[in-house]
Write a structure and sequence with these properties.
Layout: H1 4-26, H2 35-40, H3 44-54, H4 57-61, H5 64-94, H6 98-108, H7 111-127, H8 133-144, H9 159-174, H10 176-199, H11 212-217, H12 221-253, H13 259-267, H14 271-289, H15 297-325, H16 327-334
Helix pairs in contact: 1-3, 1-12, 1-13, 1-14, 1-15, 3-7, 3-9, 3-12, 5-6, 5-7, 5-14, 5-16, 7-8, 7-9, 9-12, 10-12, 14-15, 15-16
């Protein structure tokens, strides 16, 4: 049975993605100086990752090979195909080298899909330890905070922030009955914590924290602990904001029956398609030809960019529906099963 509050929540989260990208790509200024941008980025990708963890339980219980094959189809295949198309699009628009573009896109583009896959992989490995899986989860959580052990560039996955959120999503699913009984208390408590943390939230938290472990090893404790503080704060605000919105949407939408909510929940099932398509349309095409510097920053952040985001959201939903109608495009771009 589908949980309609989560479909609505996914639509809300993907709208926030588009809104944040509008601010980032339509202005020449540093997006970290835009209040709207840093507010959105305090919680929206952690929220997506927490939702991913929530719905990962069934996959974690399947056989290791079967679950990894499924997640490869659902996440990595759309990422690879879309990266190749993105490289071709950049070649056409900007004239950049196509083959170098493929390498660049595979490394940097559609990072959330790659991160969701790696988070699932770590969780599935942890789950394989049976009665010791809690210890294994703690071990993998620790490993994600030591980025230099990975071959994958740290900054292309944000796994140090995302994996804790993924694990919290798994925990919420396991204790969903507790959430259902106490959602009002959880929403109010998490909301107050989130609001309090937003008071001190700023672009300073985007500082690179790669060097934290090295500084601590070298005895540069003040600098190392400061970077640790920045990372912990980002994780904590992401978790508090995500838990708040999960409980809030459960409070407001669970069991509600009207055409508007039904439509919102329907649209929330197209998030992968929307995420990929907005990258083509907004981050590549619109960013190349549209600039909003002449518009007042506050007006753009609070009025123009949300309107643009809503319009683009509907365009992406419409195109996602077209892609879904063909079994081959649905397989390649949306990770759907290839029905014969």
């Amino acid at each position: 049975m589908r949980l309609q509050q989560f479909d609505a929540l996914k639509l809300f989260a993907i709208f926030m993605v588009i809104w944040g990208h509008c601010i980032q790509y339509m202005l020449s200024s540093n997006h970290l100086d835009e209040t709207g941008y840093i507010m959105i980025y305090s919680f929206h990708m952690p929220l997506f990752m927490m939702i991913s963890g929530f719905f990962a339980i069934s996959g974690l219980k399947r056989s290791f090979i079967s679950s990894i094959i499924t997640k490869t189809r659902q996440l990595l295949l759309p990422c690879i195909i879309s990266s190749i198309i993105m490289a071709a699009l950049v070649y056409i628009i900007k004239g950049e080298d196509f083959w170098q573009g493929i390498d660049f896109q595979l490394l940097y583009a559609f990072w959330f899909l790659k991160t969701a896959f790696f988070c699932f992989l770590l969780a599935r490995i942890s789950y394989s330890f049976g009665k010791y899986k809690i210890i294994a989860f703690l071990a993998t959580l620790t490993l994600t905070q030591i980025p230099h052990i990975y071959r994958i560039p740290y900054f292309t996955t944000n796994i140090e922030i995302m994996y804790p959120c993924f694990v919290i999503g798994v925990i919420i699913k396991n204790y969903w009955n507790v959430v259902e009984r106490n959602y009002r208390t959880i929403a109010i408590t998490a909301g107050l914590i989130f609001a309090a943390m937003l008071i001190f939230w700023s672009k300073d938290f985007w500082q690179n924290t790669h060097a934290m472990i090295y500084m601590l090893k070298a005895g540069e404790f003040s600098e190392g602990f400061y970077l640790a503080y920045l990372r912990i704060y980002r994780i904590a605000i992401g978790i508090s904001g995500s838990v708040f919105f999960i409980a809030l949407f459960h409070w407001c939408i669970n069991g509600a029956k009207n055409k508007f909510i039904d439509k919102v929940c329907e649209y929330g099932q197209y998030t992968i398609g929307i995420y990929i398509l907005q990258s083509f349309i907004l981050e590549t095409i619109m960013a190349q030809y549209i600039n909003m510097d002449s518009i007042n920053s506050i007006a753009f952040n609070l009025i123009i960019s949300p309107i643009m985001s809503v319009l683009l959201l509907f365009v992406c939903i419409y195109l996602s529906k077209i892609i879904e109608k063909n079994k081959y495009t649905a397989f390649l771009f949306l990770g759907k099963k290839l029905l014969v």
